[in-house]
Design brief:
Number of domains: 1
Organism: Paracoccus sediminis
Number of strands: 23
Signal peptide: 1-28
Largest sheet: 7 strands, mixed
CATH superfamily: Cupredoxins -  blue copper proteins
Helix content: 10-25%
Distance between the termini: 38 Å
Domain Plastocyanin-like: 38-146, 216-295
Protein name: Copper oxidase
GO molecular function: copper ion binding; oxidoreductase activity
């Protein structure tokens, strides 16, 4: 999913098969853009699948905005059920945030206007309804900065999903029933003892806590590795990979093989460059990674590795004439768990850190939960009914 490039020949390089994935850019900052929550059909492992999507006025997925451009969007619900869309990482007025506990649901056939000042970076839009999240109702939201437009690099968006041929409601029912994996029935007796375990101490010994569900496929820009998107790039050129983990339940490693990349922003916030060949992120997170393509013109597979398992997906960055080899969707061995490796997290430093000063208020928050029953709490209560959380977010604070 190529969203932006400065070089003319690269602008024409995107194949027609990926046109529906390109975020749209408005012709003028004063234009009101359109988004529609609807269903669409994709092909997964040779089978047609009906999923959801946020389609822009040109028929593609998502939006790309210019520096300083406001988010002026009319959102229409073309689904036959109510939904609500959240602008993840942006800071709109509360009435436009898209959270179901503070905003009214968008009813079938309803259109709703949005208008707020944007912040630059890699963001995304997604439903705040669990079944719709599993059903792929999401899309990228890229807001360029002036520095982005001046940089001599090509931008490529990699949008990740976990996908099941089962209905989203069926997936959620299995998870909530305490069967996080399709094959878990054989080991159900071993799982029953977990119901009495409290906190992460009881859960830490079980590998099933890494992944809540075994999905049928893992998608990068709506494709699996048996038919990956091949993005044409310049030999020896620089690429900015904007990776978005839009999966409902899966953490990934972005793996560059033998090539080192530079992590320059996390969740839309610039950071001091962190160099590695592998970068981890959880659902909802975004990574901006600068990659210098090999000078010899070879193609570069960019993998997204499912943590704690063998599955992988990805795209291929390929200069003109580069050979693209067939890639298996399963690695030879399991990938490590990102959630148990803090190397990257402890190394990250903000480009513009917060000023050091005393907190105005301190608030202790105890996070807990268990796989059986599948319930997660803050200070012993589910988040929708937690009065202390409401007090924190409704109180005027300068430093928490």
């Amino acid at each position: 999913m190529t969203s932006f490039t400065r070089r003319g020949f690269l602008a024409a390089s995107t194949a027609a098969s990926t046109a529906l994935l390109l975020p749209t850019r408005s012709r003028a900052a004063s234009d009101v853009l359109s988004l529609t929550a609807t269903t669409r059909t994709i092909e997964v492992q040779g089978r047609a699948a009906t999923v959801m999507g946020l389609v822009n006025g040109q028929g593609g997925l998502g939006l790309t905005l210019d520096p300083g451009q406001r988010f002026r969007v009319d959102l229409t619900n073309a689904l036959d059920v109510e939904t609500i869309i959240h602008w993840h990482g942006q800071i709109p007025p509360n009435a436009q945030d898209g959270a179901p506990n503070t905003n009214p649901m968008l009813m079938p056939g309803e259109a709703r206007p949005y208008d707020y000042a944007t912040r630059p970076g890699t963001f995304w839009m997604h439903a705040h309804v669990p079944a719709h999240e599993v059903g792929l109702l999401a899309a990228p939201l890229i807001v360029h900065s002036a520095e982005d437009l001046a940089a001599d690099r090509q931008e490529v968006v990699m949008f990740l999903h976990d996908f099941s041929f089962k209905a989203p409601e069926e997936v959620l029912a299995e998870i909530m029933s305490g069967i996080p994996h399709e094959q878990a029935a054989a080991s159900q007796n071993n799982m029953q003892g977990m119901g009495d375990m409290q906190g992460t101490d009881g859960m830490g010994a079980s590998e099933m806590d890494i992944n809540d569900f075994d999905f049928d496929a893992y998608l990068a820009n709506d494709r699996t590795l048996d038919n990956p998107e091949v993005v044409q790039v310049e030999r020896g050129g620089r690429v900015l990979l904007r990776a978005v983990n839009a999966a409902a339940m899966t953490s990934f490693w972005i793996d560059l093989g033998q090539i080192s990349g530079r992590l320059v922003a996390v969740d839309g916030e610039p950071c001091q460059p962190y160099t590695s060949t592998r970068f981890g992120f959880a659902p909802g997170q975004r990574l901006d990674i600068e990659i210098d393509m090999p000078a010899d013109g070879t193609a570069l597979p960019v993998f997204a590795l499912r943590e704690g398992a063998r599955e992988r997906t990805g795209i291929v960055l390929a200069p003109p004439g580069a050979a693209v080899s067939r890639i298996a969707g399963l690695a030879e061995s399991e990938h490590p768990a990102f959630s148990r490796d803090m190397t990257q997290e402890t190394a990250l430093r903000a480009m513009t850190p917060l000023a050091a000063r005393p907190a105005d208020r301190r608030h202790m928050v105890m996070l807990d939960g268990a796989m059986v029953p599948y319930i997660w709490t803050i200070n012993g209560q589910t988040v929708n009914f937690h009065p202390e959380v409401t007090q924190v977010f409704h109180r005027e604070l300068t430093h928490l």
